[in-house]
Amino acid sequence: MNYYTNENDLNKYNSYIPNRDNNKNNISVLEMFVTSIIRIKQLAKLSVENSSRFVLYVIFMALLVSIMSFAVPTASRIYSFGGFSKLFTEGIPKIEVKDGVLTADKKFEMRLNNAEIIMDTSKSSFEKADFDTTGAYIAIGSRTIKMVTYIETETSINYNEVYSYPIGMVLPNGTNNNVLKNMAPLFYIILLFIFTVLAIIAAVKYLFFALLYALFTRSTTAISKLKMTMKDSFQFCFYAQTISIILVTANEAAGQLLPSLVMSVAGIFITIAVIMSAIKPHLPDIDEFIDGLGGGRE
User: Fold this and answer.
1) What's 97's DSSP letter?
2) Are 131 and 137 in contact (CB under 8 A)?
3) DSSP codes of every residue in 163-214
C-alpha cells in the first residue's frame, strides 16, 4: 500500500505543534520564587533558562523585604492608633512651637516600627545619660530632635547620634496639633519614600552578596553541565538567597527573636547549602570531568 507524503505539508503540520523549548523562558517571577524555596534541585537550570526574569525578581524580592520589615509593622501600628489625623488630634499631647521652642502639656512615648519615639519638653535636648535600654530612639526635646542608637552590653556602651536638628528646622513656628493633622498626607508620602529607599538598599545589599557567593562558588558552577557563565552564576546565587532573605527579614520584623548576627550567619550557611544542592544534579561525574580536561585522551 502506498501512502501519500509531501514534505511541505508535513512542515506545515509541524508548525501547528507547540514547541516546548519555546516556553522555557516563560516562567513567572512567582514560579521562580516557589522554585527557590521548594524545588531547589531545579533552581540552577531554571535560573539559566530564565535570565530575562532576573531584574523583575530582584525588584520583587526588594519589595518583599521592604514590605515585611517596614510596611507591615508600620501599617499595623498606624492602624492601631487610627491614622495620623487621629494620632495628632487625640493620641499625642497638645503641642505648640513658638520661637523655635516646642512645648507640650505632658510626656509622650510611642513605638513605631523599630524605633521608640520619646517626647519630653522639660528637657532642652536628650543626652546619653537619658537612655538606659538598648534600642533606636527618636528623642524630641524642647529645642532639639534627635535620632539615636543606644547599645549596652556587659562590657561597653555604644551611643550614636544618627542626626540632631533644632526643632525649628523640623517644625516651623506656629505648629500645633491642627497643623499636624493637616499635614497627615505628607507623613504618608514620607513613609512611602522610606519604603522605597529601604527596597533599594535591600536590592543593593543582596546583589552584592550574590556577587560574593558567585565568586566563592565559581570553581563549582564553572564545571556545571549547564555551562554557566559568571553572569549566570551571579544570577543563580541571587535566587539561592531567597530562603535566607525571608528568614532574616522575618526575624527582624518579629522584633529580633534571635540575635541578628546569629541569623546572618545562619543565612550564609543556608544559602551555600542551597547553591550546592541546586548545582549538584548538573555536575559531571569523575570520568566526564577528566574527559573535559583532556585527561581521557589517548
Assistant:
1) E
2) yes
3) EEEEHHHHS-TT-BHHHHHHTHHHHHHHHHHHHHHHHHHHHHHHHHHHHHHH
pLDDT digits (tens, 9 = 90+) for 40-90: 999 999 999 888 889 999 999 999 999 998 888 888 888 888 888 888 888
Closest C-alpha to 211, from 242, 233, 244, 243: 233
SS3 266: helix
A 10 A CB-CB count for 291 gives 13
Q: Please check whether residue 116 is in contact with residue 136, taking contact to mean a CB–CB distance below 8 angstroms.
A: yes
Q: What are phi and psi of 92, to 5 degrees?
A: -100, 165
- 3-class DSSP state of 32: helix
Angle of CA points 40, 42, 43, to nearest 5°: 65
Q: Which residue has the cell 560574593?
A: 212
pLDDT for 95 equals 92
* Cα–Cα distance, 34 to 21 (Å, whole number): 21
Query: CA 96 to CA 180: how far, in whole Å?
Result: 10
Secondary structure (3-state) at 194: helix
Separation between Cα atoms, residue 214 and residue 185, nearest integer Å: 44
Structure confidence by residue, pLDDT tens digits, 197-216:
999 999 999 999 999 999 99
Q: Calculate the CA 25 to chain-centre distance.
A: 26
Sign of CA dihedral 174, 176, 178, 180: positive
- Report the chain's mean pLDDT, rounded to a whole number: 85
Is the pLDDT at 22 greater than 50, yes or no?
A: no
Burial of 189 (0-12, 13-18, 19+ CB in 10 A): exposed
Q: At 97, list the grid cell.
A: 512651637
